[in-house]
Cysteine hydrolase
Amino acid sequence: MSRTALIVIDMINSYDHPDAEALVPSVRSALPGVRTLLDRAREEGVPDIYVNDNFGRWRSHHDEILRNVLSGPHADLVEPVRPGPESMFVVKARHSIFYQTPLEYLLQQEGVDRVVLCGQVTEQCVLYSALDAHIRRLRVCVPEDAVAHIHPDLAEAALRMMERNMGAEICTAGQVRLR
Amino acid sequence: MSRTALIVIDMINSYDHPDAEALVPSVRSALPGVRTLLDRAREEGVPDIYVNDNFGRWRSHHDEILRNVLSGPHADLVEPVRPGPESMFVVKARHSIFYQTPLEYLLQQEGVDRVVLCGQVTEQCVLYSALDAHIRRLRVCVPEDAVAHIHPDLAEAALRMMERNMGAEICTAGQVRLR
Amino acid sequence: MSRTALIVIDMINSYDHPDAEALVPSVRSALPGVRTLLDRAREEGVPDIYVNDNFGRWRSHHDEILRNVLSGPHADLVEPVRPGPESMFVVKARHSIFYQTPLEYLLQQEGVDRVVLCGQVTEQCVLYSALDAHIRRLRVCVPEDAVAHIHPDLAEAALRMMERNMGAEICTAGQVRLR
Amino acid sequence: MSRTALIVIDMINSYDHPDAEALVPSVRSALPGVRTLLDRAREEGVPDIYVNDNFGRWRSHHDEILRNVLSGPHADLVEPVRPGPESMFVVKARHSIFYQTPLEYLLQQEGVDRVVLCGQVTEQCVLYSALDAHIRRLRVCVPEDAVAHIHPDLAEAALRMMERNMGAEICTAGQVRLR
């Protein structure tokens, strides 16, 4: 039996870093896709797991990170995709969602063998996380209208790498099979 | 240059598990030792890092875990050693403080090469964490009056294993060198 | 479906380290137990996997390590338990059989969910490996007449820790269920 | 003080896999670059470490893998870059040179904080290894004339990702600073 989880990467974000200018329009385009995935996952009983940078705030917890971001200038990019009451939350310190995080353990515990990755950044965390999922023998699906990039050409190459070299399924948020 | 961190293991605890009856008196004895270490660390500018089980509450954050525990029947075992405003907090899912947690990364970032371990359980998480610290080439110190056990004879064997086989320094909370 | 592998820890050994004097008599006592397990595993089609320290010889391979040891003064402790033509071999650099080795990957590939641990040292590598297996949700069995120790009292405590705290099955080499 | 190691990735290869046809001409172009790096490293006393797939041959050791490959139809692609008497050798089972291998431990032991990556495949193992090195805070250098690809456009994107997103230095085998 196979089970899928929806992974939302780095969407709790203050967008105050140097690449934000290039990133924000792409995030705006990806929001409806992420929203569609969250709605579908919650309706179909598929777990959604937020894996998010802690921005070096080791004293913080996710409510504080969320509060902080929601009171900032880019709240409109976070509000539509905020965690729900059943969402799970894993803090990461570095690029990949798996590096020194309990995500692998959590997925095993939940019986998950397939992950749908959405969020940001396509040619960075999403690519690295797809690789680390593939190395751990998880199947990977990336809806290309629910991931955001900084460089369109690198993002396009990253999607092809995921498809060709990591066996990932590339589709749209509407097409994703969740169950 | 060497830098030490104080690691407080699993002290945010509701003590509602089967071994609690044997564990609680030992925790009570260890509280003054842990308190001494926390006072000294905060006075001397040594970082204190709580590494704590999340009890499978992946939707929780540490404030919620803490609140939950402080409103329970064993609040008196938690209140004296609760995290301070500068304490850092790392969630773990399994026995060792290093297994699928960002602790190793955090210690590197803080320039820490020596850890003082206190908390519980001497012959379980403390032993496993001492091993995982030693394997990662961190120096380990365990103040024996600031760790709590379930089985006194296994705890005594665990302390000897740490001293003999993992090169750990076994001392008291008053003796520990922090800087 | 469950599948077992026999893991032979650090038996390819030159016994020229400081603890050898205390260890060698215990290894001699454990040899028939290890031999029984190897015979039974090979007869019953259960994979045997040697996980062995490389003694810092990063330029060596296992034939060279084996040759080196078999031409040394303690060849009689190695000869009876040398790898067979079907044995698999994993090199480790540190204490646990899992730390920075491909063993977890190999076990998954072979569909193994239960390990029988034999070899040395009961209160060191065997204990650490049992813990790391347990953390990874593998079931663990340790035949107490097929493991060797340096300190009898620490070994006895280690076996109790494995049984009580890691859910390990402690039995004899003759009793072990392999299939 | 900083120390560099030269890492030679997957060059001990039988080239009998489906992508070989696209890969072989690129390997042929990269051979002089890899050869230059090996010569320079051995002359300047910089350690060279081969990290190579074991092709599922868990019973093999590197001499056997090497012998096997040198007696195959593509020996001319291996002979010029074979390990020297001082080369170190680490077996990997999966894509990245760090995933479930002792490489991180070995690099720490040797005091290495910077790696020069050469070999194959630019848009696969080399990219993944650069990422895993960067995540571990190692500095990374990739001489673009000493790495081989399957898809030129993905390779070009991979080099830009390494340079832009992983802080890697991209240069030529002649330009690389080794000490």
Q: What stands out?
A: The mean pLDDT of chain A is 93. The first helix of chain A runs from residue 20 to 44. The two ends of chain A are 11 Å apart (CA to CA).
